[in-house]
Amino acid sequence: MKNTYLSLLILALSIFASSCKKYLDAKPDKSLVIPESLNDLQALLDNDQTINRQDPIAGDVGCDDYYINASFLPNISTLFQGVYNWNPGVRFDADWQNNYTKIYMANTVLDNIDRVSESNRESSYSSIKGAAYFVRGWSLFSAAQIYTVPFENGKNDESLGMPFKKTSDINDPTVRSTLKNTYDWIANDLKAACQYLPAINSPATRPSKAAAYAALACVYLQMQEWKLAESYADSSLKIENTLLDFNTLDSNSRTPITNGNIEMLYQSRLTYTTVFSTTGCRVDSLLYLSYQQNDLRKNIFYQANVDGTHYFKGQYDGNTSQTLFSGISVDEMYLIKAECAARLNDLKEASSILNGLLVKRYKSGSFQPYNFIEQVEALTTILHERRKELAFRGNRRWWDLRRLNLEPAFAITIKRSIDGTISELPPNDLRYALLIPESAVTLSGAQQNAR
User: Fold this and answer.
1) Whether pTM exceeds 0.90
2) Structural domains of the chain, ranges and CATH numbers in brackets
3) Sequence-separated (6 or more) residues with CB below 8 Å from residue 56
4) Which of 204, 172, 207 has its CA nearest to residue 192?
5) Which ranges of 70-124 would DSSP assign to H, the alpha helix?
6) What pLDDT digit, counting tens, does each position of 409-419 carry?
């Protein structure tokens, strides 16, 4: 029975995601789709195929960590080729639908948890409620990085944001909010999650307080709220701060970093695509060359091809498939805290935090610690290390391109060469916000992104 109602719920939310009004009169028997216990609600959130394996993929396909081997490009679907070369007319609806599916599931939990719980003091009540807030907030944030323009603190508050879905009622109108309201909603959901979640959780597919604090650090980093981002990164690190020592990893292994490792705060993956196949995906040569010889990440993250190029093998969850890890981890919190300290001109703290990470990434005895005395040097170095540490980490490079392009000192134009034709994506281009699905425009009246 449980599997039946879960399947029907997922069917219903798929209908919601497509915004097809003609299906609303054909809803299944209500008694079959309404959860009746906390175990039912936990089962919804434990549906890792939906919650943990369908993070947005478009940003990674569009970023500059890699290029696709020319001979392999015809094997990529036309849709993904359009995302890869930043076709202004491409519509990539999957990331929209997948994230609103998660939001629907989270809303289903929040709408029903007080009804099915005999007491909010039940042992699982708080963790389930907190997880629902986390999933809703994190999913909305992830979608916003694909379908809205980058947030500029105090400058574009009224730009188009994402639609809020506050309940699981599929008849609720879908109206795009402002960008500022979107980020405020995201932050409020994640703060609510912090109130309910346990400090740590198992398995890692279930969020924890440490993960929620870390998610808030990511959100406030995108908002250029340096003090808040640093504070939440610090709060996460006070719970979990242990780093892997890369000296203990086997660089010859196909999976040097194992699933469930001590740095993983929250486990999730991108949606599947053949784009990142080891057959066709090649590591950007400048990225590979940026690693020094004693930097252990060079051989733990990458493997040489017979033609002298390289492919990525450093999945953070030991995954050997083509779905990149997109979860949240301890090393990212070190980098956020170090960057924010540098931006706040606390160079001693920035040096200390960065050194604490890098000593675990270099061959024993070879790392020379930093002692920053200039803010520009500190920030440039930290961002360079962030680039290397979070390469092929689901969504992170795309997020960084969006936010750093707002600063002339760090803005870059990324380029593709395809059949002798050069495609370019300049800083702050409107294509950093993909078109939203046509169904959201025609059926709910949502305003389309500019081109």
Assistant:
1) yes
2) 2-247+326-442 (1.25.40.390)
3) 95, 98, 99, 142, 143, 145, 146, 270, 271, 395
4) 207
5) 78-84, 93-116
6) 999 999 999 98
